[in-house]
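Could you help me review a protein record that somebody else here produced? What it holds is a sequence and that sequence's fold in token form. I have pasted the whole thing underneath without changing anything:
=====
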Amino acid sequence: MRRNDRELTTEEEILQVLDQCDTIRLGMKGEEYPYIVPLSFGWEQHENGRVYIYVHGAKDGLRHELLKKDFRVCVEADRCLRFAQIGDDYTCVYESVIGFGRAECVQGEEALHGLKKIMEHCGFGEGHVPTRAAEYTSVWKITISQMTGKRRTL
């Protein structure tokens, strides 16, 4: 990280930023170009410290084809808090998180658990996951192996 003064230095700070973000961007290795897609998500941290991010979507498509070939991913989330002018310069006050990990498609109870985490993060509490949604949706669990965060304040 070039600007160490902006680095989030604790896991707690990084996870607080992640929790406040609405959308993640999932980066994958594409055929000719990198491929990135914005997604709703849910997450949790297990007692062993490992962070898991859950995403969902249709059961087919480019994302699924790419992940079948290479399950390594990059996850990015950010919050633009405001734009500001400092003298003659302009800047963005922001927080961001970048993580690297491995994605796997999960089934059954683990998929339902992932959908519940997504619903919680999206503001629906611990509500019921509609059976129909679980039938036509694929759920991917991303196991994060490395995560960093950055914040620009004034």
Observations:
- The chain has one domain: 4-152.
